[in-house]
C-alpha cells in the first residue's frame, strides 16, 4: 500500500471520529509511514523540519501522536519513564483466536493485550519490537457442536 492510499483509509477513520483534516497530522503520518521505524517526539519534530521543512511545535507533535495512538494507528515503545517511541501500525491486528477443530482464525484487536505484552517484556528488561499472539480453543460453531454431541 502506498502512502496516498493508506492516508485515504486513515482520513476516513479520522473523520468518523470527528477529527478535521490537519496538515500537521498528515506530515507526521507521512514521516512515520515512510520511515517505518520507532521514533520519539523529538526525532519526529527534527525530521519533519529536515525532510518536509515543516516547523511543528513539540506540544503539537505530542498532541497529534496521542490522537493517532488512540486510534490504534501507532504502536508505542516505552524507552524511559516519560518517553515513548512511536511507529506506524498498518496491520492493526496482531492477536488471533484459532479454532483447534475447524482451523478458523479470528482476528482480535485488543489494546489491553498489546499493553500487557509490552509490560511483561519490559519487566524482563526486554525491548519489545513486535509480537504475535495465538490463542487456541474452539470457535462458537464448534463448541456448539461439541455440546450437541
Ligand atoms: Zn471451529
- CATH fold type of the largest domain: Arc Repressor Mutant, subunit A
Beta-strand content estimate: 15-25%
Low-confidence stretches: none
Query: What hetero molecules are bound to the protein chains?
Result: zinc ion
CATH level-4 homologous superfamily of the largest domain: Winged helix-like DNA-binding domain superfamily/Winged helix DNA-binding domain
Structure overview:
This protein is an alpha+beta fold and about 150 residues long. The protein has two domains: about 1-90, Winged helix-like DNA-binding domain superfamily/Winged helix DNA-binding domain (Arc Repressor Mutant, subunit A), CATH 1.10.10; about 95-149, Dna Ligase, domain 1 (2-Layer Sandwich), CATH 3.30.1490.190. It is built from six helices and six strands. It has helices at about 5-15, 25-35, 40-50, 60-70, 110-125, 140-149, and strands at about 40, 75-80, 85-90, 95-100, 105-110, 135. Strands 1-3-2 form a three-stranded antiparallel beta sheet. Helix 2 (about 25-35) crosses helix 3. It is elongated, with a radius of gyration of 19 Å. The model has no long low-confidence stretch (mean pLDDT about 85). The chain binds zinc ion. Zinc ion binds near residues 101 and 104.
